[in-house]
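Researcher: Go.
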Amino acid sequence: KRNYITLQSNIDDGLILYEYQKLFSRNNKTFLSKLKRIKVINNIEEKLLDPVLLTLKNKIFLFASSKKIPNITNCLGQITFENGKVFLNKNNIFCESINGRMAGKFIFKKNKIIANTQLFINSYGDGIQQYEIKKGNKPQKIKKIIFKQGSYYGPHTLNYSPKNVFILFDICRKSYSLFNIYFKLRQFLKMR
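Model: Structure:
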């Protein structure tokens, strides 16, 4: 069995795919062993935002937003393995576009596949919109998850542990300090 992880890159275009041998934990830290970058043939030629892999039986689909259209997530194709090489088959699309950038991995509940996307109502991290996705269909809205308490708001990301025992999410804190405004502006300009 091969294990893969995808990462977002502010330098490289397309799918950044790594193969790893196994995950292991030591002293409350998780490690990947034997990490190796994989060349993807027929890759996307633009920078991807929040790439997430959807694995169904023997099929792997790539979902991500692009820097050109950051508030829409598309299925960019199916990843296939032939003769020791990795291909991105852009013609095999799982479902129609999803509003918002991905906000964590897919959740499998009963027979449903749920995609979490970021809400961008007024600012970064306004909450999460959940969609049910099905092969060949338009995603259907399920529910919004919004947290607001004083200067804290979100979530921006929502993930579950493999057996849905733990939930991981992050929230933001509004700050109007000049340092934070400068940092965010600089970060935004670097992404362009």
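Model: The mean pLDDT is 84.
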